[in-house]
């Protein structure tokens, strides 16, 4: 009985892995791939929207102070989404990224700057002086609106194919959706320049792996979280792509009399 069940179990897990592939572009990759250096990108997602020239400098919020950050990390085991956002922003060539916005990075760079400038231990001519930092023109804020909400079971077809124990495992597979937003602000005026929504779906393996029990479920536990985390990253890429398209066709809003002067919806 054990021997006959193993091929079915193996086929079920292979089918489950195939379902997870809808979120990624390759093994262990997310929707953001490759590298960036200046305005050059390497192995970027071919669906990434790009700009001919940057609109300005930008600060990207690292999300650590957001309400969604802690729960999202504990559920998906994704430690941070900001580096992938930064990669996508630089690959798009739409903005030049500053360290401002990432609390840890900015704090560390400030400490290094202070030591190199004031310790007296560094060579003359190192040019670590005041007035060299680049200010950010814009601020990008990510928000998770719906975090891996279940949108229905996707394991019925697999269960019908293999039956038995394999059917029990497959029956636990669920399709989950992540919905996110990105908001872009002009720092000097604090006016919102752009906003975009993005979404993506992935297969959740949590309930399915529970049927394996004990050590088997623990060994494959990454499958229960990784697809959901990758779906959220893909949702942010979806939102950013939409934002880039809107920004390439940007037209400033004009209020008669000027912004912040009382508006045109007068109160009698």
Describe this structure in words.
- With 268 residues, the chain is an alpha/beta fold.
- Helix content is 39%, strand content 20%.
- The strands form 2 sheets. It has a 5-stranded mixed β-sheet with strand order 4-3-5-6-7. Strands 1-2 form a two-stranded antiparallel sheet.
- Helix 1 (2-20) packs parallel to helix 6 and helix 3 (82-92) packs parallel to helix 9.
- The protein is globular.
- Mean pLDDT is 74; it is low at 151-162, 164-170 and 207-224.
Topology:
Elements: H1 2-20, E1 35-37, E2 40-42, E3 57-60, H2 67-76, H3 82-92, E4 96-97, H4 103-118, E5 138-153, H5 156-162, H6 164-170, E6 174-186, E7 192-204, H7 206-210, H8 214-219, H9 226-248
Parallel strand pairs: 3-4, 3-5
Antiparallel strand pairs: 1-2, 5-6, 6-7
Helix pairs in contact: 1-6, 3-9, 5-6
Protein name: Peptidoglycan-binding protein
Keywords: Signal
Signal peptide: 1-20
Name of the top-level CATH class of the domain at 58-112 and 132-249: Alpha Beta
Uncertain runs = 151-162, 164-170, 207-224
| Largest sheet data | 5 strands, mixed
* H/E series: HEEEHHEHEHHEEHHH
Average of pLDDT: 74
Brief rundown of the structure:
The protein is α/β, with parallel strands linked by helices. The protein contains nine helices and seven strands; from the N terminus they run αβββααβαβααββααα.
Keywords, please?
alpha/beta; 7 strands; globular
């Amino acid at each position: 009985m054990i021997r006959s069940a193993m091929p079915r179990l193996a086929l079920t897990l292979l089918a489950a892995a195939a379902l997870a592939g809808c979120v990624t572009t390759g093994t262990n990759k997310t929707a953001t791939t490759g590298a960036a250096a200046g305005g050059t990108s390497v192995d970027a997602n071919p669906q990434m929207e790009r700009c001919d020239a940057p609109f300005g400098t930008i600060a990207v919020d690292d999300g650590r102070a957001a309400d969604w950050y802690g729960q999202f990390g504990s559920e998906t085991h994704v430690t941070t989404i900001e580096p992938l956002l930064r990669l996508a922003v630089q690959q798009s060539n739409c903005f030049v990224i500053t360290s401002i916005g990432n609390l840890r990075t900015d704090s560390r760079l400030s400490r290094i700057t202070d030591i190199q400038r004031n310790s007296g231990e560094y060579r003359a001519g190192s040019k670590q002086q005041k007035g060299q930092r680049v200010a950010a023109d814009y601020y990008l804020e990510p928000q998770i609106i719906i975090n891996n909400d279940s949108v229905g079971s996707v394991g019925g077809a697999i269960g019908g194919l293999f039956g038995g124990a394999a059917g029990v495992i497959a029956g636990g597979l669920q399709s989950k959706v992540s919905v996110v937003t990105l908001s872009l602000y002009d720092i000097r005026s604090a006016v919102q320049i752009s906003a975009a929504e993005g979404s993506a779906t992935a297969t959740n393996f949590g309930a399915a792996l529970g049927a394996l029990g004990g050590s088997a479920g623990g060994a494959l536990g990454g499958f229960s979280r990784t697809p959901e985390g990758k779906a959220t990253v893909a949702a942010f890429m979806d939102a950013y792509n939409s934002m880039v398209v809107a920004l390439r066709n940007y037209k400033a809003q004009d209020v008669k009399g000027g912004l912040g002067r009382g508006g045109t919806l007068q109160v009698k």
